[in-house]
Fold Alpha amylase catalytic region.
Amino acid sequence: MQVIHNQVHDIFALSRNKFYVRLWVQKGLVRSVTLIFSDRYDLDVQKVKMDFYMNVGSFEVYTAHVQNKTPRFAYKFLIELLDGSFKIFNQFGLAEQEENLYFDAFQFPYANEADIFEKPSFAEGLVVYEIFPDRFKRGKKEVHSKKLFDWDYCSWDVPGSEVFLGGDFAGIKEKIEYFKALGINAIYLTPIFKSLSSHRYNVDDYFDVDPLLGTKEEFKELVDSLHENGIRIILDMVFNHTGVGFFAFQDVIKNGENSKYYSWYNIKSLPVDIQKGNYETFAINVKSMPRINTSNKEVQDFFLEVLKYWLLEFDVDGFRFDVANELDKNFIRRIRRELKAIKKDILLIGEVMHRSENFLMGDMFDGVMNYFSWEVFARYLMGKYNAEDASRILADYRLKFNPVLFSCQLNLIGSHDTERVLTRLGNKKLAMLAAVYNLTYQGIPMIYYGDEIGMEGGHDPDCRRGMIWEEEKHDREIFNLYRRLIDLKKTSSALNSDNVREFSIDDVLCFERKSESEVVYILFNPRKSLQKVRLWSEFIVDREIEFFSTQQKIKNHSCYIEVELSPESCEIVIVK
Ligand code: ARE
């Protein structure tokens, strides 16, 4: 009999004495699972029945939250099979006989402070709005040092990195009322530092803002005004590479091997030649972005100074790290340690476009830009996965992580690097389902500017058109949906719990979100036919139920409800 999943089980310290344990067993074999545990010296053994949590593919997942007497945790599992027999699952595998816990237990030897992942206090109810500063809003400034293109997309071909529309800090500040009307409570700005391009990912001076955006004083005013209005701000830090105008790279160009910054880069031959690009770069030969070596201690020291500067002088609330998957992992750990020691409540997000197990162990980022879960959901919307496959892949991925940490994933459905959601799905109704996923799945939702009014745009750079400000061109239906979803996300305890359960009923993908006081079900039907589902749940008996689509409230007495989902629609069922 196989009762062991490839990852066997997981354990997380939620506090010094509180542990969260998950066990995967093969479906259909097990009647109950009991966790046997104690302090690993004391051996005053306790037993707790684990809760059946959910099915994932051909496995069942059991969980337990337990309070131990000390931070020293020894544990094993007693598995009762359907035929009434028992197995012990201990550190050696499956056993017939129970031994003294001292000899056979798994161990979490000691829960040190560093083992306990804490999310920033403001993560709950946070809704982030991503802004590409050059394309958001031009402030009232009349004279500009650069030729600006017309704001209106139709008047120029492709909004590439050499096209400047002149969006600036003043423009963002002018739109604070818009942020409030939409309901978001954080903004994430793609890079604002001095750079030659309009995307500003090739940074020439990390201690200065790009003059086209405004001055540092204006940036500080922006941060202060945002804070006064309850809106946080996250900056984008590019530490994988620099611009060619960055002082250290310039010094290497000038002094070659004699430069004290020579070891900061990976130079392939001398003299360094920007036309040839004879140095390691971002991606394939992006000459404007020489890759910098983040394993180098001096490079780390320099970038840490940069981070501390923006944190301490400007009081920003978090950072997003560009190309985070290529940064030295010890550098990332150092960033976390040093920054959280200065300001505990900051959000650290890595840009990782693929599965992120290696970056989400609690000692590096709080979260990543969650492209992965979105990709799974998008494939379901587009019919590449059925609901069963999608729910399995989503759950299988999520259940690799500490549930508290998974609440800090920055959930998105598009960004400045991807096609816009409406263009990708080619269908407004599906884009609205994507918005519902975005605002209801476990994590912190991030909305890419303009998606909330139904903007379109193909791959980079077309997804970076100037924000449309003429209200008559806004799609009000989409905007109202976002507004209502944001409001729900900010007020629902269930949508902010460290918990979700993905499951399917026919080809309807469902999420269950649950807190002490409410349960929210989210049901999706992206298909072209009507689907009727019967949702069985012990939580809905004698409870008040509200349907998000109609805002209708009913008092329910049975243990199931029927929900009719018209083609390409969804329903959010709020149970209180
Ligand atoms: C230009 C082209 C792009 C091209 C890229 C790489 O426009 O079409 O893909 O070069 O050759 C910034 C600018 C981009 C510019 C780039 C280089 O914003 O417009 O793009 O500089 O000049 C990968 C990385 C990921 C990266 C994306 C763009 O994993 O880290 O590519 N994202 C960050 C930022 C970008 C920024 C940079 C990095 C550089 O968010 O805005 O780009 O600082 C597949 C591949 C992935 C690839 C992904 C997306 O999934 O497997 O490796 O991601 O496609 O392209």
